[in-house]
Write a structure and sequence with these properties.
The protein has two helices and no strands. It is mostly helical. The protein has one domain (2-32, 49-73).
């Protein structure tokens, strides 16, 4: 059981890291440092940017649930 949790956590963490890196690559160098490059205008996520944003939320929830389950059942 511990092996399955470890594999699932590792795969989820790798996918989460990949999705986060893809998001920051699209933001440009100003977005990486926290600089406001939007000029004060409202920005709506569309297309791939929205998909990556939603995928990040889903993967982070899955990772959190897996980590809690790992701590409860294996720990």
């Amino acid at each position: 059981m511990s092996l399955y949790f470890s594999i699932a956590l590792t795969l989820t963490a790798a996918a989460l890291i990949l999705v986060i890196l893809l998001q920051s690559r699209e933001a440009g160098l100003g977005g990486l440092t926290g600089a406001d490059t939007s000029g004060g205008s409202y920005h709506v996520r569309r297309g791939l940017e929205r998909l990556l944003f939603n995928l990040t939320i889903v993967l982070s929830i899955v990772f959190f649930v897996l980590a809690l389950a790992f701590a409860v059942f294996v720990g």
